[in-house]
Design the sequence.
């Protein structure tokens, strides 16, 4: 069965190609305190908070799109395909840990392309 990684992601309606690298973490937000008796008191504030680690190899023209999303103050509306429901669902996320690296010997590409770059970043759900 196909998973969410097999469908394009949309960042504020900008459709991204299928990622070359993908990781997903469904974490929980918990607050743990210890009582005077020594027992742990755990408050689960949020379950299944999604963090996506994505990697792409794309032309340099994509830098402006990714950088604009990284510095965007308002949440990014990310549309992810849910294969169980067979439709896109939206989540409010932010772009963090943005890195770009020039692919060796690609700087001589067409000037409009601005070389080929490896991009990696995390999308973290609010």
Sequence:
């Amino acid at each position: 069965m196909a998973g969410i990684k097999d469908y394009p992601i949309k960042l504020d309606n900008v459709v991204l190609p299928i990622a070359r690298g993908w990781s997903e973490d469904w974490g929980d937000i918990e607050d743990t305190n210890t009582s005077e008796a020594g027992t742990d008191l755990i408050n689960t504030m949020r379950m299944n908070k999604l963090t996506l680690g994505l990697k792409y190899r794309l032309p340099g023209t994509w830098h402006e799109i990714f950088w604009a999303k990284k510095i965007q103050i308002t949440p990014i509306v990310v549309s992810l395909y849910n294969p169980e429901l067979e439709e896109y669902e939206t989540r409010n996320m932010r772009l963090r840990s943005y890195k770009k690296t020039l692919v060796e010997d690609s700087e001589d590409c067409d000037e409009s392309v601005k070389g080929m770059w490896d991009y990696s970043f995390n999308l973290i759900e609010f």
